[in-house]
C-alpha cells in the first residue's frame, strides 16, 4: 500500500527510488563448522542479487526489498544452497508530535559458518527460518516531554531440530524529559520493559525498569546511560509437572557516539536477559561492541568492528541446560566506492569462542573480498 502511494504518477511531492543490485564475494574460511578440533576449511563463494524500493513524502517514509543468496563451498558440495530474505518498513507522521512506524522481515539462513553478531552465539545448524516484526508509536506529551511505545515479535524455526524453536515478544514503554533547564542538550529517561520467550517446555518472563540520561556533549560527541533492575521468572514443564524459578539482578546499557566529518565511532555496553538462539531457553547476555569508520579519501574508507559477548545460564534458571560461553569478534576492513554504482570491499574476520564448562576453544579466521553493483532508477 505504501509503495502504491509513493509510486511515480502519484502525489507531486515525493522521492522515489528503485535499486536493483548484484553482489559477489569470495572468501576463505579456516573453520566453517566452528569446531574446537579437526577444523574444516573451505573457499566460500557468495552471490546475491537484490532489489530495493523506497519512497518518501512529507509524512510517509516507506521501503521494501529482498534478495536471493547462492552459496558454494569447495569443502563440501552438499553445503551449496540458496537462501533468501524479504523485508519492509514504513513510518507515518500524523502530526508534528505523533509518529507511528513498523517493520517486517522474513529470511532463510543455512550457511554453516554464520554467527549472530548481536549475540556472540554460533549457529552451525543446517537451516533456520526467522521472522521479525516491530511496531512503535512516538508522541510528544509536551514541549519538553515525549513517550515511545514499542512491540517486537520474533520467531525462529529449525526444521531439523524443532525442539529448539523459539518465539519472543518484547514490549517497551519509554519516557524522555528535556533537562535543558539544568544542563544543555540533556534528557532524563525512564523505561519499562516486558519480555516473554516461549520455547519447548519453557516460558521465560522478564520485567525491567531502568532510569537514565542522554547528553549531547557537543556537536560531535553524545552519550547515554540507562541502569536499573530486572525480575526474571522461568516456568519449566518437567515430566508433566510445572516448576518455576525467579531471579533478580541489574540490567542496563551505556553508549558513546562520535560523529565527525570523516570519522564515525560508537561503543555500546549492555547486560540483560536475551534469547539463547540454538538452545532451549534464554541467557544473561553481557556485551561490549565497538564500531569505527574512517574516511581516508572521498571514495576510500576503512572500518573496524570489535565485540565481546558473555552468555550465561544455570540449568533450571533460564534454560534447561547450563550455558557459559565467552566469545570475541574482530573485523578490520576497507571499502572503495570505485564509481557511483560499483563498490569494492575486503575484510578479515577473527572469531573466538570459549566454552567455560568444557574449556574447549574454537577459532575461526575468515578473509574475503567482494564487489557490489547497483543502479538506482528514479533517483
- CATH-assigned fold name: Porin
Number of helices: 1
Estimated helix fraction? under 10%
Distance between the termini: 21 Å
The number of strands is 20
Radius of gyration: 23 Å
Category by helix and strand content: mainly beta
* The CATH class: Mainly Beta
Summarize model confidence as the mean pLDDT. 91
Shape: globular
> DSSP strand (E) fraction?
over 45%
Uncertain stretches: none
Order of helices and strands: HEEEEEEEEEEEEEEEEEEEE
The biggest sheet, with number of strands, parallel, antiparallel or mixed sense and barrel status, is: 18 strands, antiparallel, barrel
Task: Work out the count of structural domains.
Answer: 1
- The CATH architecture term is Beta Barrel
List the helices and strands and how they pair.
Layout: H1 2-6, E1 15-29, E2 42-56, E3 60-73, E4 81-95, E5 98-109, E6 114-116, E7 121-123, E8 128-140, E9 145-157, E10 166-178, E11 186-199, E12 202-215, E13 221-238, E14 241-259, E15 263-275, E16 282-295, E17 300-313, E18 323-337, E19 342-355, E20 361-374
Antiparallel strand pairs: 1-2, 1-20, 2-3, 3-4, 4-5, 5-8, 6-7, 8-9, 9-10, 10-11, 11-12, 12-13, 13-14, 14-15, 15-16, 16-17, 17-18, 18-19, 19-20
